[in-house]
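Components:
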Amino acid sequence: MKPVFLYDTTLRDGTQGEGFQLSMLDKLRIAERLDRFGIDYIEGGWPGSNPKDIEFFREASKLDLKHAKLAAFGSTRRADLAVEEDPQVRLLLEASTPVVTIFGKSWELHVTEVLRTTVEENQAMIRDTVRYLKENDREVVYDAEHFFDGYKDSPEHALATLEAAAEGGADVLVLCDTNGGTLPEEVLEICTKVKERIPGTPFGIHTHNDCELGVANAVAAVRAGGIQVQGTVNGYGERTGNCNLTSVIPILQLKMGLEVIPALEGLQALSYFVDDVSNNPHFARAPFVGRTAFAHKGGMHVNAVQKLARSYEHIEPQRVGNSQQILVSELSGQSNILIKAEELGLKLEKGSDEAKSVLTRVKEMENAGYSFEAAGGSLELLIRRELGSYEKPFDLKEFHTSYRLYRDGHQPVCEATVKLYVGDVGEYTVAEGHGVVNALDKALRKALLPFYPEIEEVSLTDYKVRIIDGHDNTAAKTRVLVVSSDGEHSWGTVGVSENIIEASWIAIVDSIDLFLQRRGVLATKSADTPSAARA
Amino acid sequence: MKPVFLYDTTLRDGTQGEGFQLSMLDKLRIAERLDRFGIDYIEGGWPGSNPKDIEFFREASKLDLKHAKLAAFGSTRRADLAVEEDPQVRLLLEASTPVVTIFGKSWELHVTEVLRTTVEENQAMIRDTVRYLKENDREVVYDAEHFFDGYKDSPEHALATLEAAAEGGADVLVLCDTNGGTLPEEVLEICTKVKERIPGTPFGIHTHNDCELGVANAVAAVRAGGIQVQGTVNGYGERTGNCNLTSVIPILQLKMGLEVIPALEGLQALSYFVDDVSNNPHFARAPFVGRTAFAHKGGMHVNAVQKLARSYEHIEPQRVGNSQQILVSELSGQSNILIKAEELGLKLEKGSDEAKSVLTRVKEMENAGYSFEAAGGSLELLIRRELGSYEKPFDLKEFHTSYRLYRDGHQPVCEATVKLYVGDVGEYTVAEGHGVVNALDKALRKALLPFYPEIEEVSLTDYKVRIIDGHDNTAAKTRVLVVSSDGEHSWGTVGVSENIIEASWIAIVDSIDLFLQRRGVLATKSADTPSAARA
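Structure:
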């Protein structure tokens, strides 16, 4: 048996977070992915709260889950209503999941002020509902809402509600720090008390991050003997979010030696997957899985990491699917630049004039708003230019974009023209697109294709816009980051301008330019015989 | 005397984080702000690592700090060099700060593999440097780098380095979890051991967030008797960042009863200030200070919070300068919409057809990519339209934007034209701008100004672009969020389109439209006498 079971509530509690919305299809995809990763329980939703969740459970029953058990979430029966008459409880059974999770009230304040019933009736609601679900052959998880606040208010009241759930036959009693205000030492102490008082039923933990202690509180509960940890991928959830499974899983496995996931190296991919599906930006500073979680910027750290990786890394990044990054930035000593150049396979000598001028240029451009941390492609071009291993693929003469919107007519028209020279041969092209940047990208490719047919292999895979100075209204500076791929490799390029169109242009040109430099196709071109290039 | 001193290293360790860059002026502004907020120590930089920091200390000595002491950061003397000969140590004294913080090596691995010296020489380096700084009348903070890793490797070695610092006369021994891999229980245990072994010198704590335990580890150290907490505002810093002072401060003060800051209600403003100065986006889910830290989305929670705020809030948001938010979204029951309408001073009856149709419309628009959580202005317009308390200020006929870039000529030309009607009167205007959206904003205002001179009071104060679906390259959907102000109130509006220009247009039009609805100036206009409006 596993020492600790993982219970994911991304699909339910996660969707209570601002900006975290999932369609039914999204939920199905995430459920499947959680199962493959090795999560033990997947809470799919609350059938009693919205029709989308009822539909989800209908569809989810067709999923081919290999390991995880699906759980439907709901509440205890209403006050003064027989449990078998309660429509919300009926919906829980109709979800046809092997597991049902119900929450009940632990805090006297909530019983009297929110539910507006008596302490005795509240206990009966818990006991009856758990028993009824057990009679219907469900594994029952009892979520003791506000348990820690309730305990601090009245230990006897809170413990009596747990006893009611245990009497009903609950399989596990999950202690919830619903408001996220409890400290780890309190969690440890209170969990220990619960274990002493109710030794016959195991307990689990459900925490929130309101004090930035969601993970620490879950760890404290496991130390006290907890056997189930509830949380969400990337910590999404109401207010400040839930316990971040993406952090607590590697702590349990790598720091505490508890085997909870068979292949932990899938962790970063899972984190990105949930961000992508929910259309949320990746949080670069996220522990374990963040883009910068193993990124070294200070010149001294970079030096030391080169000598000995574990000198500034608490685990091997590969164990959670991450990797070491050397950031090139303002604080860069030459060693960051040299390492980056080496990664790129470019020869840059320590202390050389080229290395110094690359560094100077990087700092100048960063002052102007550039950021090379996620734009290795633009940095590579910059180094190539300094090393002289660069050949200009074309000269831009001008470009023009136009966008016309008619209120009572057809679709908006987005059009771009590009005028450029490759050697002495001029090209003047026009294209339409979904937007002006898309049109511009198309017109540029159209102009270059006769000379460089290889660019057909290149496609844009990501396009991000960031306003880097919001103080000057719409005239603020814009940074555009483009990720391109040729099917095998991908690379990031960056452009900065007061104008989003020009910033996009710079990033797109860099993207194609770098591809051509790497392919080394430029030297073979004769400027005045574009047809030869096609041969 | 304060029970715990706060030591901020945003200006030094913070700037090791990706995307966290500060100019010298930025650093001065932040230092002043930290002082006013009540931080005890401000670490300004490492004069030995870059010339910007030397300049900073020169300028910082002119700041009128009311409370905080400035600290210069550096390392112990080099191996095999007399301390008074060490140029890096000399720069520390030349910074002329009342406090100097030096770090030394606690982990044998680092002594032998990174420094490549002996254990004895390492201890001498620590002892000599501390003593020399004390002889020069500095308050000396000794940062024991990698202390916990070093202790776990060899307690005797790690403790001997602390003893060397204590012998040199250090004022405080700061135990650093440099790699962020230590668990709170280990911190508690090891800090307790340090206190037993070296009772004569107090200790402090410096943690990193690599396991999402930076705050928990600092709290554990304070429990063990630590008297100084080091960290950064918003947790900025290398890799996953430093201990987040913005979380640990309210925990110390509100949860542990330690008076560390005189006016804690300035906390959220400090957090936003540092984000703004460093040009970083606000992290909405940040504990205590985040935009959603006290935001309620689930219908049930919204209900309960209305009955009793503390039912889902662990502290009063006002105590840290934050406030309660009711989010309108997909999960909204009618009660969220009703509360929001009430906040806006609009009468919307529970269960009414209007309330239902507002909810339906919100859900439709959210499916299309809209988000009203930060765009209360657009939501207000939507409610007004459903209630019939809305009058259309103008009819758009068409608009056009054009952007032309010349490589070998003058500045790019951004131009927009707008054709619209107010009643029967047509206007056709053209304007140039810094970018096409800026030009469009100007052309629109130019067209409306004769009819609605009030709009001169409205200005755009923020403009944000978010790509909400990166799967379709440059044709992805774009959400534009605009914040406007009339000098007294500010409001957010939102536009979504495949095209950034159209999305911007929608958000800008909503912004002006809402202003006009609120002012109630529409009904007074006679469509064919614009001059009357000016009277």
